[in-house]
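Slide 14.
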Amino acid sequence: MEIKAVLGFLIAIFALGGIGGGIALAAMNSARGRKARPGIVLVVVGVIGMVVLMPLNAGLVLIQPNEVGVVFRQTAQGSASLLTPLQSGLSWVVPFVDQVVKYDVGQQSVTMAGADETTQAGGHGAVRAVTKDGQTIYVDVTVIFRIDATRVNDIHRNWQKTYQDGFIVAQTRSEVRNATSGYSAEEIYSGGRAALERQLVDDLAEAFETQGFLLTDILIRDVSFSTEFTDAIEQKQIAQQQAEQAAFRVQQAQQEAEQARVEAKGKADSAVLAARGEAESITIKAEAESEALKLINAVLEQNPNLLQWQYINQLSDQVKLIIIPSNSPFLFNLEDLMAQAGVQTTPVVPAPTQEPGQP
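Slide 15: predicted structure.
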């Protein structure tokens, strides 16, 4: 662009300084009676400079790094052809014969969004599609693509500058409708958007490539459903949540019942163990008492008077006299007993025997 500016400046100098200045100088010299030749020479130099620089400037084309230039040439015989596209940089074409149309080969995007398919200000409306279960939805889509620099002549020949509306938007709408017809509204609503995007990428990439476009990505920004469908889905989710809560309560009750059963079984087992322990304790105690009785009987058999001695030994120290009935089957030798106990003997007075008839 700087070279074109320099050439433009030089052309202006030749036009103003050469032609304009030469004509003025020739006129002044003629008015003063001098020769007009210096002015005429200056005009000739200006004309020659413009003749050389103007075609040179007109044929220079600057192509930006993200652009490719399509060169359209029409010959004197009336035929036309597309020459090799111009790559980024400064190029020169035949002025007034070649026409250059620049195409952006960088990343481009087209967004289709809105309440319906009508064209919105500065964009395009959403894609209206019908699911396989008959639900009407509106899909907001953004298509990211770029022009294949090696196919730019084909794009210029087929679409020229109308490729966005004529092909990109139209093809995208068609593929979105076709892909959506394979999904139910509930599938898309519950997370099928990612699968729908992948299918659209595969389908659109192939369609774009046939026309010289390279698909980078397709983004589903939003999906709008009818109010009736949204309400139905919401009610279904509420019912499902209630069912899950009921199932949770049942499971919780089952767990509580199982816990109560385990606790009851534990208490029963503890009671059984306690009863067994008590029975074993009683058995052991009874066996001990039986064994003790056996030992006592054995001792008594060897010492018959031991029982009498134990009886007397338990009496109070103040007891000096024992009266026993005359008809008692037991006879105690008190002196022997007291002697064994180391106590002073006291005579035992038998109770008088009453005769029949005596008071």
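Speaker note: The radius of gyration is 64 Å.
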